[in-house]
Amino acid sequence: MSERYFPVPEPSKKPEIIAGLQLLIQREPLREEDIESFFIAWERFKQNEEEKESLLEELENRINRAINESLFFSEIKVLEEELEKTKSFASGKMFSLLERVNKRLNLILATLNKPMPLIRPRREDGRPPGADRITDRRLFEYLEILDLDLEKLLREKILDLGCGEALFVSELSKKAEERNIKSGRGSYGIDLGLLNFLKESNDKTKEDNVEPLEVFKRKRLQARLESLTNVVIVGDWHHLPFASQSFDRVVSVFGFPFWVESWHSLRTGFAEILRVLKKGGVANLYPGAPVITPIDLDEATRKIYDSEPILYQLWHRPEYEEIIKELAKKVQVQISLKTFWPNNVSPAVYLTITVP
Fold it and tell me: Which pLDDT tens digit goes with each residue over 73-96?
């Protein structure tokens, strides 16, 4: 008799639920067990639909903000992935919004992925920059991008936020050791994203279609990082694992505030930087803003953005301006537009913070 029971279908399988209802209508007499099993499935289906509707509403709010205001750099990839998942059950007005913001995201991603000096600088040996992560930069690149003096850096204790593969920190420490300068060997790099990068790399090494050379590179990277005592792989700028007034300088190139996720994150990040800086300490941050420009720029500005390999910046956003003003009440803050590299690519915002 058990074969007569109506099986509870998956909540997402609406056709099976309808088929089950038709089966119940045709069956005589209807059993209490059949009716109960159907309504359990129906309640699950309704709950699933309500969750989807809630997800769509939340996503719609974020999309409207992306279109009408601005989007944090850190949200670009996350939103892109969510859009792909949502398209499977979106329709009507919501689908139009998805298509609209997807075009916008593609434009942004295409710009960020261009092999331009501003995004991925040339290597010291002149070879093409390749597909390195944008935080993986060497000592000479930090010196040029942030306009810093090597001799001065060697005598400072430095924290690099978003250090990537820690090339800057390790090269700086090595030079300090060669010259027997103890202070320079006290520099640190911190990177939360690197942990995920290595985990993904380890997962990829288990796949059969991964090139042996790529596997070797990833394993060599992990071994090198594990041998460095001055690199903190797990960490974030909300809770820096260092005592107050620990560093003479904090630097970041495409780290902080480039990848912050909210205005609250920006505030707490600045507070932590001020906490770990010594009196007279300096923070050099590039780019100095975490948001992109809105799409509805005036025609003249749009032409500039379309014709130049420029980073999307919007450092005059009211929210950003408010945070900078709050910061300026405590310390010296300088916002400047600079260009670098021989071909003078378009300027982006630099932020310099000095603790009195």
Answer: 666 666 667 767 776 666 666 666
The residues that bridge with 72 in the sheet, in sequence order, are: 291
| Single-letter amino acid, residue 240 | L
CA–CA separation, 30 and 81 (whole Å)? 45
Residue ranges in the chain modelled with pLDDT below 50: 1-11, 112-135, 184, 195, 197, 201, 204-210, 213, 216, 225, 227, 292-298, 301-302, 304-316, 340-347
Cα–Cα distance for residue pair 74/71, rounded to 1 Å: 8
Confidence (pTM):
0.56
CA distance 121 to 146: 13
pLDDT confidence of residue 58 = 73
pLDDT value at residue 318:
64
Tokens of 81: 């992935």
Tens digits of residue pLDDT in 133-162: 444 567 777 877 788 888 888 888 888 887
Residue 161's nearest CA partner among 229, 235, 226, 228 is: 235
Neighbour tally for 332: CB within 10 Å = 12
Q: For the chain, give every domain's residue range.
A: 2-112, 139-354
CA atoms within 13 A on the CB side of 190: 17
Rg (CA), the chain: 26
By DSSP bridging, strand 231-232 and strand 188-190 are parallel
Check: CATH 3.40.50 for 139-354?
A: yes
